[in-house]
Recover the amino acids of this structure.
């Protein structure tokens, strides 16, 4: 079989996927119509052309305004459902999906609409697609710690629908320590923890160290700047810490996929995984990311299998579920 067919057919878990980052221009257009919203664009092609950026900051400046079309529980359901259908075609059998409630509650959309719609799609995926899906609540790090804590409190009645919490958005001037109390509380409430340590941020390595030593995360999203500190790499390896890397996303928000860093960590036995991040914006779903990295770095079929095994090893599915997948 071709590398592409092999990579797409490989059963895998996707662990770094922002549901709001799966808003394809077609769905954005349809939801705008359904909700009576006038977009500045008159066609799907124009929306696609507007998905244009050069770094994380310019990406986020397009990403948040695009979400205005998401309003009702049905909208959130449709977004997640379309992702899950696409994910299945890319070999995904289990997905742990980030969502950004504050990107919606901050513009007046009830938390209940967001989580209710997303959860309905996750349950439907188990029934109709035979794949499992969990939600990870992400706090937006450019908002205050108080707003994050209030969001965590708002989420507690829905705790059975949420497997863990994460931290995303603009890392600049928003280091992990800002959210120490929120993450301590989330841990005490029984949630798994992860945080974004984005690529080549100012103070990246210090943030990665803080996330490992002080916050005590279960995984790190991106985090490949860890290669700057071999002692820290050794600790990550010893603890079996998972890294959810996103090669195609990297090539958009920096100049390159960071394949040397990703493959270097893989060769050292660190549990790196491959994911899509915001596939509607970066034009590549998770299987496409396996292919892109493999072509760039000359990976073997065995390497791809190892990456897929890692995705199950560092997933937050229970041992009973895991036995059914690996
Ligand atoms: N939100 C969505 N995608 C993100 C990324 N790559 N980094 C930080 N925040 C994000
Ligand atoms: Zn991300």
């Amino acid at each position: 079989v071709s590398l592409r067919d092999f990579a797409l057919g490989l059963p895998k878990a996707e662990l770094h996927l922002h549901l709001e980052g799966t808003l394809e221009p077609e769905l954005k257009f349809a939801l705008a119509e359904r909700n009576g919203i006038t977009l500045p664009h008159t066609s799907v092609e124009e929306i696609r052309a507007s998905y244009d950026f050069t770094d994380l900051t310019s990406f986020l400046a397009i990403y948040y305004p695009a979400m205005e079309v998401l309003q009702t529980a049905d909208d959130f359901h449709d977004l997640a459902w379309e992702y899950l259908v696409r994910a299945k075609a890319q070999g995904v059998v289990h997905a742990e999906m980030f969502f950004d409630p504050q990107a919606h509650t901050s513009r007046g959309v009830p938390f209940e609409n967001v989580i209710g719609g997303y959860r309905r799609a996750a349950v439907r995926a188990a029934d109709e697609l035979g794949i499992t899906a969990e939600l990870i609540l992400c706090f937006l790090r450019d908002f205050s710690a108080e707003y994050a804590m209030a969001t965590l409190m708002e989420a507690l009645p829905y705790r059975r629908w949420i497997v863990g919490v994460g931290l995303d958005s603009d890392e600049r001037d928003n280091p992990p320590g800002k959210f120490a109390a929120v993450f301590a509380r989330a841990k005490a409430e029984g949630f798994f923890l992860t945080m974004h340590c984005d690529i080549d941020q100012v103070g990246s390595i210090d943030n990665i160290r803080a996330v490992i030593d002080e916050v005590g995360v279960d995984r790190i999203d991106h985090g490949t700047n860890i290669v700057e500190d071999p002692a820290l790499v050794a600790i990550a390896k010893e603890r079996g810490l998972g890294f959810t890397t996103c090669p195609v996303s990297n090539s958009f928000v920096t100049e390159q996929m960071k394949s040397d860093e990703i493959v270097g960590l893989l060769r050292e036995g660190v549990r790196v995984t491959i994911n899509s991040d915001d596939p509607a914006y970066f034009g590549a779903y998770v299987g496409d990311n396996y292919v892109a990295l493999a072509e760039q770095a000359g990976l073997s079929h065995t390497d791809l299998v190892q990456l897929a095994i890692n995705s199950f090893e560092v997933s937050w599915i229970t041992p009973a579920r895991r036995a059914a997948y690996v």
Summary: The chain has a mean pLDDT of 96. The chain has one domain: 3-315. The radius of gyration is 18 Å.
